[in-house]
Request: fold
Amino acid sequence: MTLSTDYIFLTDELEGFKTCREQRSTASNTMTVILCKKGHIDVYYHGEMIRISAGDLWVRLPDFKYELGPYKYSDDFVFRQVTISAEIFSQIMFDHMRVDPNWWQKQEYVKSNPIFHINKISEEFFDTYFHMLTLQLQDKPTKMRIQILDLLAHGASMEMLNYMDKMALIDPEEAKRAASNHSDYIFHLFMQMLQENPHKREVQWFAQKLNITPKYLSEICKQRSGKSAGEWIADVTVAEIKHYLRNTALPINEVVKILEFPNASFFCQYTKKHTGLTPNKFRKTQ
Reply:
């Protein structure tokens, strides 16, 4: 069965897998999770051929650097695949950063170690979410269904992250020391500072702390992740805005103070620029 919307794709069919590879699975715009139920599949990823076997969960995060290469599978290959848009993944990532400030280092770990052999309980969780998403995608489209799908996609992803957290036990200081060059080291420092200072919105502020120029910081970020420093700052800011508008009933003026915007007018302009809606209209849509 293969089912999809603009932001989520489910399949347990080889034709669906091939279609996703051809139409959706580019290097930077999706996150894909494949649970191998039987047999195996070999995929060329990050410069080498990797094998996903029965009981393995393969997690492919949005990645600016690496595209998928050739693949081949066994005759008895059985799998379940969930692919979500980078927009949903970004929201999940920033939500998770609130819980675990070291998530960026763990994300880098997952990119280098994308295969997890999961236990039966975790496999049952994945199967349950897959089944619920399948049922929702087959139901008649309604406003509530869209929100339910979004919540299920978040829940499934958070369940996966919960399992990966147990496996990717990364010391952030070790991650910085292991950076392969100066640019990697600066990028790791910037991401850590951004997590610790989500309300700072000036590239100049971060560059000054790192003793480099704003231009050089943006060049490093662009080279390392495909996004400039300003784009990363905007992503974190927008994620914070969405969090408070979605999950709290705080008056707009209180949100403005928490997020350290100079005034409500600038906050409204910023929100509309990055979401297409004013804060009040965005809150109503949620």
Observations:
- The chain has a mean pLDDT of 82.
- The domain at 2-89+103-167 is CATH 2.60.120.280 (Jelly Rolls).
- Residues 143-167 form the longest helix (25 residues).
